[in-house]
DNA sequence: AAAATAAGCAAACTTATGTTTGATTTTTAA
DNA sequence: TTAAAAATCAAACATAAGTTTGCTTATTTT
């Protein structure tokens, strides 16, 4: 064997870390020749082999037929953050997008996701604080107990949803606040996750 | 002009959505020919032009010289989730990795990040619940008031950090729990974010 | 120390893929 | 209705980038 296990892992890990960093910075994988020059490898064949070993170790994915086809196993979904909701405007118009966020696909699954910044303290009981971002799956129905985003007075609000006696109850998770009761509300989606940074 | 504005945006947006979906599923961008067949475009030149228009609209990035170089503007960082910490073992060994998560680079910045699953309810005051994932920046020092991950009795624990009278105080954010006081602790990192899914 | 095994290398090979060109069709404006 | 402008197309082009080959060097094992 050319190297003992420790050495071997070291070289491969250096390449793996480089690929990780490269993808993080560029959004796509480096080519074999870039791996060579940046990791001190002199032959493209060597880099090629190392990449294949990383693939066998399950650290990355790579197509044998396609080019430019190295991917990390941690996939992501690009999700728009909906900014301030202008009265009367369609919520999901591109103009309302306040940028895109890459969310971990293995944690926030589903189609048609969007994000919203939490305002106020109406949901502190379940640990939703001001400026947290909630991840929402777009849907126009909800079940009792769901945490939903509803359109109330031309602004998006996060509450727990109940339907009782033909009325819609939007329940804040805050002991100091009262329920809101409506005949009907527009549901924008169901909250499936939350992001915060300190 | 070939199309009115509404039509034009529609075609381009279809391509954009396709690229978004493709990247989400594969981890790398489709080639021009794949865009053609999947979006009903008959000429690679057309797809090429549309992609360039999307680039000009700022929806994606693309190198003019490199190949395989389409990227969404929402970049991500691949972060390992540290699973159960075995006594005596080095925490950051690859064997302890419980998979990787792609986090939004525009939200969780920094090098050397890792994630940890929250156990127990010692931090509920600041909205950290059981099974939440915390995002941690690796570092071995901390400032008063930081929320940190420390190694206590061979297991990683999240607490608020204080240093007072030469002692280290690990403060649970839970009114029913007492402070832990140590002469010295091993700091693994500082908590910079949190993920939850419902 | 020799044999066996693995890793690394240079160089050539192959082709997927981005790009250009020039004609054709569609849309817009006059 | 016609002319101008823009978009789309088919086809060919150029080459970046993955892969293979055969040899050399390093490491491990016996």
Description:
The structure is a homodimer of 198-residue chains. Chain A has 198 residues and is an alpha+beta fold. Chain A folds into 2 domains: 68 residues, Orthogonal Bundle (Arc Repressor Mutant, subunit A); 120 residues, Umud Fragment, subunit A. Chain A is built from 3 helices and 11 strands. A 9-stranded mixed sheet of chain A has the order 4-3-5-6-11-7-8-9-10, with no helix packed on it. In chain A, helix 1 crosses helix 3 and helix 2 crosses helix 3. Chain A binds a DNA duplex (30 and 30 nucleotides) through helix 1 and helix 3.
Tell me the layout of helices and strands.
The structure is a homodimer of 198-residue chains.
Chain A: H1 5-26, H2 32-39, H3 44-56, E1 60-62, E2 70-72, E3 76-82, E4 97-104, E5 113-117, E6 133-138, E7 147-152, E8 155-164, E9 167-171, E10 180-182, E11 186-197
Parallel strand pairs in A: 3-5
Antiparallel strand pairs in A: 1-2, 3-4, 5-6, 6-11, 7-8, 7-11, 8-9, 9-10
Helix pairs in contact in A: 1-3, 2-3
Chain A binds a DNA duplex (30 and 30 nucleotides) through helix 1 and helix 3.
């Amino acid at each position: 064997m050319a190297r003992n296990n420790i050495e071997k892992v070291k070289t491969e890990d250096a390449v793996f870390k480089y690929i990780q960093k490269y993808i993080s910075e560029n959004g796509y994988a480096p080519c074999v020749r870039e791996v060579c020059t940046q990791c001190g490898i002199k032959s493209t064949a060597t880099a090629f082999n190392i990449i294949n070993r990383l693939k066998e170790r399950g650290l990355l994915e790579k197509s044998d037929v396609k080019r430019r086809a190295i991917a990390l196993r941690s996939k992501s979904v690009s999700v728009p953050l909906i900014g301030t909701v202008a009265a009367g405007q369609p919520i999901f118009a591109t103009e309302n997008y306040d940028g895109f966020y890459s969310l971990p696909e293995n944690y926030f699954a589903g189609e048609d996701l969007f994000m919203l910044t939490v305002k106020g303290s109406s949901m502190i009981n379940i640990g939703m604080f001001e400026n947290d971002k909630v991840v929402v799956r777009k849907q126009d129905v909800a079940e009792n107990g769901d945490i939903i985003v509803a359109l109330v007075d031309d602004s998006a609000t996060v509450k727990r949803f109940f339907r009782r006696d033909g009325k819609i109850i939007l329940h804040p998770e805050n002991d100091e606040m009262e329920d809101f009761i409506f005949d009907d509300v527009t549901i924008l989606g169901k909250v499936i996750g939350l992001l915060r940074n300190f």
